[in-house]
Amino acid sequence: MHTLAIVVTVVAALWVGFSAFSLLRRAAWVVEPLTEYGVPRSWWPRLGVAKAAGAVGLLVGLAVPVVGVLAAVGLVLYFTGAVITVLRARAYGHVVFPTLYLVPVVAALTLGLVG
């Protein structure tokens, strides 16, 4: 189980890190929906940094488990908020996108708590 937890955590961290990078680089496929959902531009840098910090926290958690758990909990809250934001914007077809980030983080958290 330990190896699985490490692999899932690293994949989740890389996936969330990619999301952070894409937001910080203001990739059109990321920022256009944020505009549509009504997320203020002034929030974008902080949201990107929060995701990046969470990704780093997941990796640090491989050595310091409490940091990984806290990072995972933070990311679960972040992506749950993203799902709620999409639902409030009534962009129901887009709910899958934040969920694609939420699921691996939940898996990493679950495996981290079980292991």
UniProtKB/TrEMBL annotation:
Task: Tell me where in or outside the cell this protein is found.
Answer: Membrane
Indicate the transmembrane segments per the record. 51-79, 91-114
Keyword field contains Manganese: no
Q: Does the keyword Endoplasmic reticulum apply?
A: no
List the InterPro entries: DoxX
- Any idea which UniProt keywords this protein has? Membrane, Transmembrane, Transmembrane helix
One cellular component GO annotation, for this chain's record?
membrane
Put simply, this protein is called: Membrane protein
Organism expressing this protein natively: Virgisporangium aurantiacum
Phylogenetic classification of the source organism:
Bacteria, Bacillati, Actinomycetota, Actinomycetes, Micromonosporales
